[in-house]
Write a structure and sequence with these properties.
The structure is a single chain. The protein has 11 helices and 7 strands. Strand 4 (247-254) and strand 5 (258-265) form a beta hairpin. With 339 residues, the chain is of the alpha+beta class. The strands form 2 sheets. The protein has a 5-stranded mixed β-sheet. Strands 1-3 form a two-stranded antiparallel ribbon. It is elongated, with a radius of gyration of 36 Å. It folds into 2 domains: 3-107, no CATH class; 181-339, Heat Shock Protein 90.
Length: 339
């Protein structure tokens, strides 16, 4: 920091001192003070101002020179706060406190990104192990059982396709707002697409799909909603109850403020202690120990996407009786007026 720059930045204070100097001299002259006394006062004022400017300039120069020197030699500039001592002048303290808060905020954000990256790596590793199973099954069937039914191959390919789609949506869900478009969507069309994707496995397991949606329309993104419903249907199929007539019922409930999509299945249900955790990442619960292909990611991704779309998703279940998933869409009267 140069003295000329310091004086330039404090020009107003210098001008104020000059003004006060002349006012004091005018008052002293008006009271007919002796010239020696006036000279003594002037010298005292001048010494006091010079001392103050020298002291203030010196401490600021020392602080900013060290600050700039350290900043220049640091490879990781954000660590500058670790190289600083808190200064003893007000605006320097403001700078120090601001840098501390900025550095703290950045460290928290870096920690968050690191955790997300670690979670993603763990998921990718888990997914790779999962996707190897259907690939290995298809490979064995192709080489060792050339006469095998195509249904088995189709089943493994369907599972592979679902696993690939799941990891794709998991990756995209981190920046879902860049990839979705909210508009009026017919629920019948979305559910029909999901049913078509799962028709073979539904038929093979003799699961009745009952749909009663009354031509209902909601505000959402059809692509994201189709994935969410597909994850719920996959779970319903995965956890069917043996020795029963399994069915999945998809219906609609209208309230004053919401449209509620209900997906009910007569499967094995979820234990009461597991229900609060079903949307947690990689949580499979007691059911997951019975079904080897469970990853605990489908409902986690579905919940994440619902949150970003502005929907709510809930689960109610009784073990060995049923599971019911509800997706709640908030009605938007403004859209109805302006569309």
């Amino acid at each position: 920091m140069r003295l000329s720059e310091y004086l330039k930045r404090n020009l107003l204070n210098v001008l104020l001192f000059i003004f006060i100097f002349f006012v004091i001299n005018s008052i002293l002259i008006a009271f007919k003070t002796s010239s020696q006394a006036i000279l003594g006062v002037d010298i005292s004022l001048l010494v006091g101002v010079v001392f103050f400017i020298s002291y203030d300039y010196g401490r600021r120069k020392k602080f900013y020179d060290i600050f700039l020197k350290n900043l220049e030699h640091l490879d990781k500039k954000y660590l500058i706060i670790e190289m600083m001592d808190c200064p003893n002048f007000y605006d320097g303290k403001i700078l120090y406190d601001s840098l501390y808060e900025i550095n703290k905020s950045m460290n928290e954000k870096v920690k968050e990104y690191t955790m997300n990256l670690n979670d993603f790596k763990e998921y990718i590793e888990m997914w790779i192990h999962e996707v190897k199973l259907p690939l290995s099954s298809i490979n064995l069937m192709a080489h060792n059982h050339k006469e095998i039914s195509n249904k088995k191959v189709i089943e493994q390919l369907k599972r592979l396709d679902d696993d690939v789609e799941q990891v794709l949506y998991y990756v995209r869900s981190e920046n879902a707002e860049k990839d979705y478009l909210i508009k009026e969507v017919n629920l019948n069309k979305v559910v029909s697409n999901v049913a078509l994707r799962n028709k073979d496995i539904l038929l093979e397991n003799k699961i009745d799909l009952i749909v009663d949606l009354k031509n209902t329309k909601v505000l959402t993104d059809s692509k994201w909603l189709e994935f969410i419903i597909n994850q719920i249907i996959i779970n319903s199929i995965k956890y069917i109850r043996k020795n029963t007539a399994p069915y999945i019922k998809i219906s609609i409930e209208e309230t004053k403020d919401n449209t509620i999509l209900k997906i009910y299945d007569s499967g094995i249900g979820i234990s009461k202690k597991d229900i609060p955790k079903v949307f947690d990442k990689t949580f499979t619960g007691s059911n997951g120990r019975m079904v080897r292909t469970s990853t605990g990611m489908g409902l986690y991704i579905a919940k994440n996407l619902c949150n970003k779309l502005g929907h709510q998703i809930t689960i109610d279940s009784i073990e060995n009786e049923y599971t019911e998933v509800k997706i709640i869409f908030v009605k938007n009267n403004f859209f109805e007026v302006v569309k």
